[in-house]
Amino acid sequence: MIPHGATSADYIIVVAYFVGITLFGVYFGRYAKGTSDYFFGGQRFAWWLIGFSSIATMVGSYSFVKYSEAGFSYGLSSSQSYLNDWFWVPILLIVWLPVLYYRRIQSVPEYFDLRFGRWARLAATGFMLVYLIGYIGVNLLTLGKAMQPLMGWSVMTGAAITCALITAYVMAGGQTSVIMTDLLQGVILLVAGLALFAAGVWQAGGLTSFWAALPQEHRYLFSEWNRPDNFSFIGIYVQDGLANSAAFVLMNQGMIMRFLALRSIRDARKMAVLWILVLSPLAAIAVSGAGWAARALVSQGQMMTSGERAFIDAAEFLCAPGIFGLVLAALLAALMSTADTLINAVAAVFINDIYRPYLAPSKEDRHYLLVARLVSLGAAALGLLLVPVMSRGTIYHAHAMFTAAVTPPMVVAILLGIFWSRFNQPAALATLIGGGALSMLSFAPGLDELLVYPFSFGMGPDSYAFTRALFGLVTSGVIGVSVAAFTRPQPLAQLLGLVAGTQLDAMRLYKGGAPNLNEGRIAQGVIRIDPALGEGFTVAVSSGLRERLQGRPGDMAYICDSRWWLGGLRSFHGRLADSGSQDGQPDVIRITPEAASWSGLRDGSPAWVEKIC
Length: 613
Fold this sequence. Notes:
Layout: H1 8-27, H2 35-40, H3 47-58, H4 63-74, H5 89-102, H6 108-116, H7 118-151, H8 155-203, H9 207-213, H10 233-250, H11 253-260, H12 265-299, H13 310-318, H14 323-359, H15 365-390, H16 395-419, H17 425-441, H18 447-451, H19 464-485, H20 503-511, E1 523-529, E2 538-541, H21 543-549, E3 556-561, E4 571-576, E5 588-591, H22 593-599, E6 606-611
Parallel strand pairs: 1-5, 2-4
Antiparallel strand pairs: 1-6, 2-5, 3-4, 3-6
């Protein structure tokens, strides 16, 4: 991966990117005034901003290098890993997001507590922390390997330096800093990846010449059913389409925090559609395009490369000095934007699922904020300590080890929990512990042939990294269903808002009263700071606005600065109070001084108001 043609201009751009993104993230630390800000960005952000931020988190780790290598070796079918998320959209939009949002669930382990009890929460917390910290180690290892040819550092040195920079802005601003830096990094990596592919097509002589230069077998969107062993359709489907995609949309704490950073369930659904159905296909082209272009240019005799070097060599061949540095910055953006999310997620799980409920309850919020920052530092340090251990094998197998062992039991428990009311505490514990134990056992020498081969569709050992996920899903499901069938179900009253079909109950719990289902419109008014409203986040709107909102006293509302490009940075959630026309001004939004101080909204500034429920 050594870029022989890198110039001083390229190195300057890479270093400037590191410094700039760190300072950018630290700047947004001023919005982290409490744990709600640190973990969920104050639940204020717009759907489009979170959508672009989330694509940076998804395109992480070794994506550019890995998928360019697959694109060079197998053609357009390299994109199938990124196109397997769409069938999870109905579950996410209709069932899972309402459960998370209306029950005010802050983490997946907290859902296990509400649904199955304390012991299930502790088991899920253990799974989650092992997964997240191990994943941090994978990303830091990848960062170190990426920096090694660029800067001449050892893998450990590169991992340590980038870890320090990432940790600096995560500790400063938490989720707000992560969201804003990942927004910038998401745009950078999409633009750079798509531009590199476009440059390759142009260099090949246009789209027709590019297509003609690809071997016939490289023109298919999907690989063959069960060959080759390490890149078959069924292998990739069960690993990425079933286990990993389900894990990413249902249990990945980093993504859960992104959904909960959105201002409303309506925006969460818009963001999910943008992310999965629009940005993910673009990301598939961005991360694979260099490999496709490199294969076409090799066929034309314009360049020489291998699959492992396809991304770096294509970027070096196609880019002028300086522009090459921007492409390398995009590679680093993909790496950093996953590590920062994971570090913040570890802090959220530790504080919300261990420290606050069991170790130090009833402390002031600033105490939890301080501990969260320290835990972020500790999570980064633990991930860094794993780098030498994981460097003994390939990055891919380090990643596969964690996903295959951890995600199947958790995914099965979540799916059965939200769709099957009979699935109870003993079944959840059996699924997590039994399924996890069998998944780990399948790594033992000799047992993989016995346990995983029946799920490999006739493929050899090279397929086990993929098909082990199917083994985990099936065995976890069998254990969970069997135990649930022979144990007593939970009372339905304990499941309100936690299973499919109880959304209205969840809304009632969220609001503290009957939800207002009248379809209103988002309305614009002028902010007036009114000390007479008292303390808290009370909102009084004029009669004209209330009619457009179809709002009633006691309804939950969201108030936001009308400048869309702020993405919701100046906003807050409040509760509507009874109000009249305020001195004949039809479009006035009165807020308390406390709400104005927290949100940054100013007297006389235009703002939008939206009824939540």
